[in-house]
Amino acid sequence: MASSTPPHCSITAPSKPHQIASSSSSHKTLQQQQQPHLQRRFTSQKVCASPRNPANSLSKANKAPNFLSPLPTPNKTHLSPDFSGKKSTRFVSKLHFNRQRSSLSTRHSPVAEDFLTQSSAATVDDDQFQVLLMGFQARLSGSEDFCFLLRELGNRGESSKAVVCYDFAVQRESKMSERGKLASTMISVMGRLGNVDSARFVFDNAVNGGFGNTVYTYSALISAYGRSGLCQEAIGVFQMMKTQGLRPNLVSYNAVIDACAKAGVKFEVVNDIYDDMLSNGVDPDRITFNSMLAVCKGGLWKEAMRLVTEMGMRGIDQDVFTYNTLLDVICKVGKMDLAFDIMSEMTAKNVMPNVVTYSTVIDGFAKAGRLEDALAMFEEMKCAGIALDRVCYNASLSIFLKLGRFKDALNVCKEMESCGIRKDVVTYNALLGGFGKQGKYDEVRQVFEQMKNVRVFPNVLTYSTLIDVYSKGGLYREAMEVFREFKKAGLKADVVLYSGLIDALCKNGLVKSAVLLLDEMTKEGIRPNVVTYNTIIDAFGRSAGMDYLVDAINGGKTSMVSTYNSAARNHEGSEHNRVMKIFGQLAIEKSHNFREFNESRQELLCILGLFQKMHKLEIKPNVVTFSAILNACSRCNSLEDASMLLEELHLFDDRVYGVAHGLLTGSRDTIWIQALSLFDEVKQLDTSTASAFYNALTDVLWHFGQKRGAQLVVLEGKNRNVWENVWSTSCLDLHLMSSGAARAMVYAWLLNIRSVVLEGHELPKLLSILTGWGKHSKVVGDGALKRAIEGMLNGIGAPFHLAETNLGRFISQGTAVTAWLKKSGTLQVLLLQDVKTQPENRRLDQRPNLQPLPL
DNA sequence: ATAGGGTTAG
């Protein structure tokens, strides 16, 4: 097993993997040395892609129809829904396609195949189907043929024909045991089709008819409930079978464990079932362990690793399911370097990664923000001769969209088309979000129209996405229109849609209204999640303290009021009106430039109430929550107010609180070791989460005058590469930083440059400080960061000025900066102090030759 | 009886 502290493997190097693999030179490149796993994987994949195995070497070859070998069943039987574009792959995986056929269970007669061919014409309705059945009745032989038919009908989604077939077969079957077989098959088929009520109906009838009390029907029903996420029901059936005196077998146990895994049941609970299994003398097999692994998806990656080891000790071989599930667990906790190692290990053990393996790991990289690494995995995959499927295409599409590489994104769409994979709702949603986030609203409109034209029906995610992109762009009229359409489609709103609406309110400073809407959604039975809460917490103080933000987005447009009024008149539905009112409120509120001063006080109470609700609903906070609390503290006018919020932080997390509190109160020396370990841990998260935390912590320190502390935090962030290439001698890039972090960083950078000058080096001709447009503000063109930096530079007399060509860039001649840095008073200006310092800190800070920069 | 995907917070 790979070690728990894997070496860091970079796979971002520019040259393509297959170039490494095909390199015949004995010279080892640096990249090869850094990528032992990658190379190893390639060498073994190359073997299977060799000319002796041409079928594996080209993705197109994989899709060649099986004309060469005559199929037992004609054409449509084995046609994957992938090609007909009817079902998602997720659904396909639930069907029987990949099932190994044991010679016993599926020994059906050729007549059954024949019947299937004749009855599968699109024009055959249920009645005609029954007539056909009667015609074949004499020649179809017993339950084996009928079970085969039921499964095949299930695969085609022919639910009602399956019902006809089942009734027909049961009525004509005299043996109880054979009827029992039919029943368990039918329950399984209905379960796979997601029709759990029908499954239950069949089960109950079978039990009442005296042929349903078998381990098989119970197991099938447990599985049916499991697939629908109804874990409690599954466990109920499991217990019921025991009270009926039936002894659960391996399949029963596996089914109930799988049900728990799908529903996200706690590991301890499932472990009890596992122990129960052992004590009843049922030996776990590979599938048991694979399902137990799936239970670890909640983040128990160490437990997952342990399970795999235990499998080995029990002499159970790991298969591709084992590794794919394990990888999923590892990827979900973001341990991508470990995932990379495990992938190499599976190859070494001759368990070859497949399309699921790759899409799991690719998704892990993408979620960790390592988009280039994700793209490199695609190359590796193609090189290994593994054809992309729908899931993979959608993953690659969304990566290109995230990178803003629209040309590549459209190429992915074309490639999908040429492979015969139709764009599904996931594809379209990705396109809508991708274009929308870049403000390409024309394209959004076109894509939305197109998807409806080709009858890919928008779902809740589609509407949430659209409402979100329009709201973020301030296009409330369009957002309102989308919401109207959403209601017309008769879909039920979910937590994400509501969170989007709440966010729209928050971004406009309407925190109290946001809290009201939160109560609304709770009343409607929609459970808010941590994102919903983080949104509101982070918005604290925006209305009272940041009115200029409201002004900035205002732009003088108030025409929304009339839009709202006419919209509200047309619809009487209460929820509809409420949301319409929200959009209206957004428009109206924008015209208010002044707010009550005591509003911030009210808001504080409002937020404190919010924390109560969070505890009550047992919503677990995350790092973003901590960042949000720190940001809220930054908007408090007094340390007293802030300390009320910090107390809430205390309830959530001792360590984060300890560090924040210690730095704020000047006990830096005593807390610094803990701070460093916290920083290390934060760095394990993806870069945007990490930088947001650093930004928040720095801001609150800066806000309360702990500027030296803020600077030290920022430098730790820089050392851990949180903001990516922050500085060189000629350029300081602040565009990912908050205003406090950016200011602390400017001081540090100038001191660094000063030491360059004092060492006698010449500065570059031109120096730049980039602020972008202030990513932190999230308001396009807002430039809050730019203003903060401008004020600061002016304040210390630095000779930088705005570049005329780029409004987010400050420049200065190197000679001017050199002269300024050499002036006698400059050093004093650049050294930051904390307003609060414990004696030991003061001693350190006042050493005259203190170099603040660990360069 | 087992594996992978899309929306929301910073």
UniProtKB/TrEMBL annotation:
- Tell me the SUPFAM superfamilies matching this sequence: SMR domain-like
Bias kind Low complexity: ranges: 22-35
UniProt xrefs under SMART domains:
SMR
Keywords (A to Z) from UniProt: Repeat
Q: What is this protein called?
A: Pentatricopeptide repeat-containing protein GUN1, chloroplastic
Region described as Disordered: 1-85
Looking at the record, the residues that make up the Smr domain are 732-821
Is Repeat among this UniProt entry's keywords?
yes
Q: What Gene3D superfamilies does the database record attribute to this sequence?
A: 3.30.1370.110, Tetratricopeptide repeat domain
Comp. bias intervals (Polar residues): 41-60
Which InterPro entries does the annotation name? PPR_rpt, Smr_dom, Smr_dom_sf, TPR-like_helical_dom_sf
The UniProt family comment states:
Belongs to the PPR family. P subfamily.
Upper classification of the organism = Eukaryota, Viridiplantae, Streptophyta, Embryophyta, Tracheophyta
Q: Which GO terms describe its biological process?
A: chloroplast-nucleus signaling pathway; mitochondria-nucleus signaling pathway
Superkingdom of the source species: Eukaryota
The keyword Metal-binding is annotated on this UniProt entry: no
Where in the sequence is the signal peptide annotated? Answer: none
Repeat (PPR) positions are 214-248, 249-284, 319-353, 354-388, 389-423, 424-458, 459-493, 494-528
GO terms for CC? chloroplast
